[in-house]
UniProtKB/TrEMBL annotation, chain A:
Single GO biological process annotation from the record: amino acid transport
Main location group: membrane
UniProt xrefs under Pfam families: BPD_transp_2 (PF02653)
Single annotated GO MF: transmembrane transporter activity
Membrane-related topology note: Multi-pass membrane protein
Originating organism: Thioclava pacifica DSM 10166
Protein name (record): ABC transporter permease
From TrEMBL, chain B:
SUPFAM superfamilies reported for this sequence: Periplasmic binding protein-like I (SSF53822)
Any Gene Ontology biological process: amino acid transport
Keywords: Signal
Family matches, as InterPro entries: AmiC_PBP1 (IPR039570), Leu_Ile_Val-bd (IPR000709), Peripla_BP_I (IPR028082), TAT_signal (IPR006311), TAT_signal_bac_arc (IPR019546)
Protein name per UniProt: ABC transporter substrate-binding protein
Top-rank taxon: Bacteria
Membrane-crossing residue ranges in chain numbering: none
Amino acid sequence: MSDIIFIGLSLSSILLLIALGLSITYGAMGVINMAHGELVMIGAYTAVLAGLHLGLNLFFALPLAFVTSGLVGLVIERLVIRRLYGRIIDTLLATWGVAILLQQLIRLEFGLSFFGIHIDGLGPGLQNMTVPAFLTQPIDVAGMTIQPYRTFIIVVTLLLAGLTWWLMYRTPMGVQVRAIMRNPQIAAACGIDVRRVSALTFAYGSGLAGIAGVLLAGFKTVMPEMGASVVVDGFLVVVVGGVGSLLGTILAAGILGQINGIVALLSNDIIARAVVFAVVIALILWRPRGLFSFKSR
Amino acid sequence: MKTNRRNFLKHTTAFGAAAALGPSMIASPARASGEIEVGVLFSLTGGLSIIEKSLADATMMAIDEINAAGGVNGMMIKPILEDGASDPKTYNEKASKLVIRDRLQTVFGSYTSASRKAVLPVFEKRNSMYFYPTYYEGFECSKNVVYTGAVPNQQLSNFIPWIINTLGKKKFFIVGSNYIYPREMAKVSKILIEQNGGEWIADEYLELGHSEWGAMVSKIKESGCDVVLSNVVGDSVVAFYREFKNQGLTHDKLPICATVTSEIEIAAMGPEFAVGSYTSFPYFQAIDTDRNRDFVERYRKYVNDPKAVTHHALESSYFQVYLWKQAVEKAGDISADAVREGIKGQVFEAPNGTVTVDPENLHTYLTPRIAQWGADGQGTIVDEYPAPTEPLPYVAYGETPDNLFCTGAGLDTSKL
């Protein structure tokens, strides 16, 4: 029984990890960020490159990926998204274009491959991140096998969720962000620098995607296309949880992960995926605005 | 080329008014100029380019080698390279371009079955030859395709008995990606497992590209199996082996025996996750012969990468060009009909050993081998058939060497 819950929990934690950044960029800022998966991918590549060229392990790669993806997010916000606030469909198209661009940048090694320069760890090939040995060896505690890497992911995800909650609800910055979510014009009228706060919020959401990328790299192949598949799961969670609600995102990730885990064990993964989609459809029909929602811009 | 009425009509549609100038104008340009044009059709972009680029490189290397050694019957080979872009539809368009506009009689190409199926109608309708270098699921019998990769009986007929008799493992957990190749492989595996006195306790599938293996590996752990037979394809392989280790399973107690995990996948996952597991292929980079070592060295020099790995489909991409060359030399003509007749029974000393094209079904005799993966990402050959095995593309449906379903006359559908 504990095994089943653990699998569900680890599935949930990965869903939450991806959705957390999205719940900021999509949930709080109303940007359908199709490039979110690519920010995850950039995080994963940061870990690969840091391992290959700087000899840094997973733990150092986490903050590095946060900064890298965050900076890329900041640049995307400055160049593209800033001009598109409030035009939700346009953000979808524009960020999709950005996503393709980012994929090609990695695949073409920032264009250097045209000049015959090859950077180890980039290019169209499959890469992998080395996981420290003590995180791959299961530990037996009181008859239960504990998988350190999965446990590590769960712990990091919970910490990040806690941190995000604290930033949003316990800091002056968070108050400003929430004010902008409700009504940007009034927020601006109250003296909040909407542009600056929005840019930083987007960068923070992007940075979370970078961390997700590092952790995913531990058990997935790292390749330029890796982000495309994760972004769909992320949107599922955010939409079911209720756009703009952190608690809803956490709860939705928990529910969907557990359903996925239990059905996968009882039947198989393909049926589990179908069941998850069925549940999502049912939930959206029942509560079109998600589990938790409030009026926002 | 014969210019009967049927052909004439074809040319008229293809060339319009040009056809009115007469047959000499519409003959293959290749023969007129003293060089032979052939098509090379692999994905140079997109998700599959990682692997298909290496197949294209091996094909080009064989062409360059043949040209350097004086060409085919004194004629130079001129490759026309096209990009399938990892997309079956693009494959179809590019194949049409090569066959209809460039009027090529022979094209080397494809990695996936999906892309082969997409181009097949073009080659059959226009009667050109397609050389396909990848191991695949069988169940195909085309007069216009020469198959130089392994079919299920060449990967499994040695593997399953060896697992049962040598490893002493009897309870199989079969797992694969959810599409035709793994499902056909599972079908053949089950027949062989039952024949050899083993049993299979599960036959499970995951979507192609699926990377969340937590539930499946947990199921494997609980199932009580003593060996895992993996037909998992693509980047899922990496996630699978990594999760396997993370859940505390080891290959010395519960080995993964795979039919798709090649040198490429091992390098991508990090060799430490595969140490001790097995794969069955006719070719491994580790084959310890001078011919193979020389081949690996030449390939690395050709692609200018001292760490490049070679693998089964890559080696087939290389030697099938030589088989084609011999067929042209034997027939004295480059037309598809001549190549088809010429290639029957052709023998070539490939890096993996002697390969022979079956005169009936145009598949290739290959030597099944089993390798155990080591910490350096290379296999150690632990078992090798004494002789090349006859290819049986319909083995899952009861085909045997004495009862061929696919012959030179085509597929005998009454036997299915």
